[in-house]
Design brief:
The complex is a heterotrimer of chains A (414), B (304) and C (298). Helices cover 51% and strands 12% of the residues of chain A. With 414 residues, chain A is α/β, with parallel strands linked by helices. In chain A, the strands form four sheets. A five-stranded mixed sheet of chain A has the order 2-1-3-12-6, with helices on both faces.
Chain lengths: 414, 304, 298
């Protein structure tokens, strides 16, 4: 109901502006896959800011975590009937659309508003560039590297809440004895892959992570350092044996209800705790970088791309939208609702909660690294997730076999 | 396989034909008993859906999916129909309802019209090469739709129908064609040949025989075709969303958004209400078609 | 059927039938042959997000056949396919035969068996995922009734998961098969039944030796409908298990989709779909030729 009244208000204000005789409202269709409560509220902030420029945001939301939405978006663009703007994740998802010349470049806006100076970390803008031209607007940062723990579960098991991954593994037997699943894990490849990469960064460290994903070094991927990560993944596999859920939020729910000890999932999981009325520190604990030393976070997230349009007025509206999305005011409003971190270093999020503040500190300290979405192709990522799905489901698949196949995938990665 | 034994036992005595006079015979007990048990299996998920859709979220979190609601609430239905959000548009399934109707009606009519004529031509007016095209069509029935997404985008773009209602109707007719053509062809082929020959002797032509002899005799198969098409097209999500624009999106887009929103709490009650609401139109068609099925028997009696 | 004297030019024989078949011919040639040829061609390229003409020979196929997930998908399709085919046929026919015995409440029963077909596969998967969930579905209910050791957890068991999907698929699809069979049974002349009765042939024999052979065309239709649905099975798996646990319930169509759109590797997806098509063609074309081509012009 709330969103509905927001929309009604928006429509009214848009109408009022049009009446006021501004340059004339241009409709711009924006496609994205943000459809849950919190996400929709965040999108509403973008739409509100855009409508305030005298244009009109036509919403084209398609649910299904991007996997459903992306083929539709790509078809629309290649079918010669593109939308005004569309969401993709940071990284290489839209690479070819840009190369094929289907996206317009935003050099003029970027230069005028000094994107180079304000976007932090700078790697985000680099990810939007091809041959020196800017093709997208990053709007938020979502970090994967979190361990969420249920204080109740550990109290029930009679052990203290762990402060890092190793303590968590050590506490697993006590949890199991109390009938609690130590690790909640949705049985889907992307979640298992995410967990694995979190372990890689927390246990293997930044250098190993880059060697594997940036340099595609098959030797490092098959080496002794990496074997430690696989050992940790093996622990995780055993700890998650009884986690009979699929969706990530069902897994989070196990943590919220104290049926599971913890879950390693991105910062979007925090929204679930909030909706359930839980308080950070009291009901649940959050460990950035899984509580391991030198916590580093990856800078995944969402960007908007703007297909080339013939219509002059719409092209102008596209530039206005790009500019609005990066404005400090929109960044704060949008990211607070979304539960993500802003892409500018110069905005203040005093209202963020404790967990988010931890993340912002890491970001401020510059302990950031590119996400796998930015480093490896979606194809390689899918192969990797496939392997992880198999590894976590087959308790009898040996660590060595898994590592060998991992090295093969990295060796043939692009 | 209790079903099998039940049927053969029941079939062993009592002729088929007029309503049996003994209502409590062994045959009837087994027959109705079996049907009843099977019906329970088919109804169980519906029961769970209905019950869930009438519960509030706190009750659902308890996890007793078979338990009837302690406190009945229609809020999930209201929400699914009029309030659930798709991004910024918070008007629930109602938003796409008319679009679904606008898409389904012409698509069903066109696809069945084309396919029934195809089937008739193939069964009764075979011409050279017809079976080649027909075989291609049958192979076409096995192609996963996703594979054809890009080729169809290209075809529609080239003929200038991309993003239009006409284009979508065309796509539905194309993908409905293999199965429906087969359906009609085989049905027409199973009708007594003498009828066709007699009509030919009377001097009736291609369309005359189709309209005056074949159509009236094929009510049951038309019912099946309508069932297949209404259900398939009404429930279609992929084509509707890929080949049209947001102002033409069918209600399955909203259903998908309600059911598939991966972030945030899953509102199972709203999901189930939305599911049932979306299924109402095909269900209604099934109820109505029941009467037509019975009339199909009458048509069969006439031809004898 | 038109006599030679009426239309001397063979091209104009059955002219109306030919004109009426134009949509079919166009669809067959442009969409199915054209689209398929296009797909096959691009399976020899390394196209990623967009189709690009960059020939790489059989690379995509080599990779395909060395991918464990693809091999599991094929195996699953065979198990699922065989069982689904047999059960759909048997259950569909038995239900139709029972309904055709002039029972009371036929409408009610038919609607009950058919209604699941009104619900999309996505929804079917969701509901059955729920019913089969060990923590609050059937297993939970039976256990809370006192049978503590009762175990029925197909969706999280790698060996059983494909059967869990089968249960849902049969629930959704058998109603339509029943309707098809019923339509077929209704097309059978009442006189045949009368004659059989007069001759004293038992009902089950009448079904087996007279009715079923007469239903051959309907069975062919049913076979194609079931088989094509099996090959294309995708939504149900996605909604019910997402292919898991691990890859235990992966199917070929899902592999195609995932690599085309999720992995943005069109070439790989096309190679997989070409393999699917190839096997369909190998099975279907000879059979279809025998089935549809052999009878002469009527």
């Amino acid at each position: 109901m709330r969103y509905r009244s927001v929309t009604a208000m928006l429509a009214a204000s848009a109408a009022a502006l049009a009446f006021a005789g501004s340059a004339g409202a241009t409709d711009l269709e924006v496609t994205h896959w943000w459809t849950s409560g919190g996400e929709a509220a965040a999108v509403a902030e973008l739409a509100k800011a855009f409508d305030a420029t005298g244009n009109h945001w036509v919403d084209g939301a398609i649910a299904g975590s991007g996997d459903t939405a992306r083929p539709i978006m790509v078809s629309r663009i290649t079918g010669g009937d593109p939308m005004g703007a569309t969401q993709f994740n940071h990284g290489r998802q839209a690479e070819e659309l840009v190369e094929a010349g289907l996206m317009r470049n935003l050099d003029a806006v970027a230069a005028k508003e000094n994107w180079k100076g304000v976007i932090n970390p700078p790697s985000l803008l680099e990810g939007c560039m091809l041959d020196g031209h800017v093709y997208c607007v990053p709007v938020n940062i979502h970090a994967w590297q979190w361990l969420w723990l249920s204080n109740k579960a550990f109290a029930d098991a009679g052990v203290k809440v762990p402060t890092n991954w190793n303590e968590f593994v050590a506490a697993a037997p006590a949890l199991e004895k109390a009938g609690i699943t130590p690790l909640a894990l949705g049985k889907q490849g992307w979640q298992e892959g995410g967990l694995f990469n979190n372990l890689l960064l927390a246990i293997g460290g930044k250098d190993l992570y880059l060697k594997v994903y940036q340099d595609k070094d098959a030797e490092a991927a098959g080496g002794a350092e990496m074997a430690k990560v696989f050992k940790a993944a093996d622990d995780a596999r055993k700890m998650a044996k009884n986690s009979n859920v699929q969706d990530w939020n069902q897994a989070t729910n196990l943590v919220i209800t104290g049926k599971a000890g913890g879950q390693s999932m991105g910062d979007w999981a925090q929204g679930e705790f909030q909706v359930a009325g839980q308080v950070a520190g009291k009901d649940y604990s959050c460990l950035v970088g899984l509580g391991m030393p030198n916590a580093t976070i990856t800078t995944g997230g969402d960007s908007f791309y703007f297909p080339k349009l013939a219509d002059e007025a719409k092209s102008k509206a596209q530039e206005e939208l790009a500019s609005v999305m990066l404005s400090p005011k929109t960044q704060v409003a949008f990211n607070l609702k979304k539960g993500s971190m802003p892409v500018r270093g110069d905005v203040d999020l005093t209202t963020a909660n404790d967990c988010m503040k931890k993340g912002l500190e890491v970001l401020k300290a510059g302990n950031v690294i590119k996400s796998t979405d930015e480093l490896i192709s979606p194809d390689t990522n899918t192969q990797f997730n496939d392997l992880m799905a198999e590894f976590f489901a087959k308790q009898d698949m040996s660590v060595e076999d898994a590592q060998k196949r991992f090295a093969d995938i990295i060796g043939s990665a692009d | 396989m209790s079903v099998a034994t039940a049927d053969t036992t029941s079939a062993a005595d009592g002729p088929r034909g007029r309503k049996p006079r003994r209502t409590l015979s062994r045959r009837n007990i087994i027959l109705y008993g079996t049907l009843f048990v099977v019906a329970v299996y088919y109804l169980l998920p519906l029961y769970v859906m209905v019950v869930t859709s009438l519960k509030g979220m706190p009750e659902i979190r308890l996890g007793h999916i078979f338990a009837p609601p302690v406190e009945i609430t229609f809020q999930p239905w209201v929400k699914a129909w009029a309030e659930a959000c798709t991004g910024l548009n918070c008007d629930g399934l109602s938003r796409g309802f008319w679009n679904s109707v606008r898409i389904t009606v012409p698509s069903v009519i066109l696809s069945i019209a084309i396919a029934s004529v195809n089937g008739y031509a193939l069964a009764n007016w075979r011409f050279k090469g017809a079976e080649v095209f027909f075989t291609i069509l049958i192979v076409g029935a096995f192609i996963p739709y996703q594979v054809m997404l890009y080729p169809i985008v290209i075809i529609l773009r080239e003929i200038g129908l991309y993003g239009t209602l006409t284009g979508l109707v065309l796509v539905h007719s194309i993908f409905g064609m293999p199965i429906l053509t087969l359906l009609f062809r085989n049905y027409f082929a199973s009708l007594p040949e003498e009828l066709f020959k007699a009509a030919r002797v009377d001097g009736a032509g291609f369309w005359g025989i189709y309209l005056r002899i074949m159509l009236p005799m094929s009510l049951p198969i038309f019912v099946v075709a309508v069932i297949i098409q209404i259900t398939g097209i009404w429930n279609d999500f992929l084509f509707g969303v890929v080949y049209t624009k947001p102002d033409l999106y069918p209600m399955t887009v909203q259903l998908n958004n309600i059911v598939n929103s991966v972030q945030g709490v899953k509102e199972y009650n709203v999901n189930m209400a939305a599911t049932l609401l979306t299924g109402l139109v095909p269900l209604l068609v099934y109820f109505v078609s029941g009467k037509l099925f019975v009339r199909g028997i009458a048509a069969g009696a006439v031809k004898g | 059927m038109r006599s030679q004297s009426e239309r001397p030019n063979p091209l104009f024989r059955n002219l109306n039938a030919k004109i009426a078949s134009i949509p079919m011919v166009l669809t067959a040639l442009v969409v199915f042959v054209g689209g398929t040829a296009w797909t096959v061609l691009y399976s020899f390229t390394n196209s990623k997000l967009l189709p690009r003409w960059k020939f790489v020979g059989l690379d995509q196929y080599e990779r395909l056949w060395s991918t464990p997930r693809w091999l599991v998908s094929i195996e699953n399709l065979f198990i699922y396919g065989a069982l689904s085919l047999v059960f759909s046929f048997v259950i569909g026919f038995l239900l139709a035969a029972m309904l055709d015995r002039k029972i009371r409440f036929e409408d009610t029963f038919r609607t009950i068996f058919l209604y699941p077909f009104a619900l999309s596969f996505i929804v079917t998967g969701l509901v059955w995922q729920w019913l089969l969930n060990p923590d609050f579905g059937v297993q939970h209910v039976v256990r809370s009734l006192g049978w503590e050791s009762f175990t029925f957890n197909p969706l999280y068991d790698r060996e059983l998961v494909i059967y869990g999907i089968l249960i849902a698929a049969l629930w959704q699809g058998t109603g339509l098969i029943m309707c098809l069979m019923l339509a077929g049974l209704r097309s059978i002349d009442e006189d045949i039944w009368k004659a059989a009765r007069v001759d004293g042939i038992p009902v089950w024999k009448t079904y087996l030796f007279i009715v079923i052979p007469m239903l051959r065309p309907v069975f062919v239709t049913t076979l194609v409908i079931i088989a094509s649905a099996i090959v294309k099975v995708y939504d149900l798996v996605v909604a019910q298990t997402g292919g898991g646990p691990g890859h235990a319930s992966e199917v070929p169509a899902k592999y195609v989709y995932d690599y085309m759109f999720l992995g943005q590797n069109l070439g790989q997806g096309f190679a997989a779909s070409t393999m699917m098509l190839l096997s369909v063609v190998i099975v279907i074309v000879p059979w279809a030729y025998l089935e549809f081509g052999r009878r002469g012009r009527r």
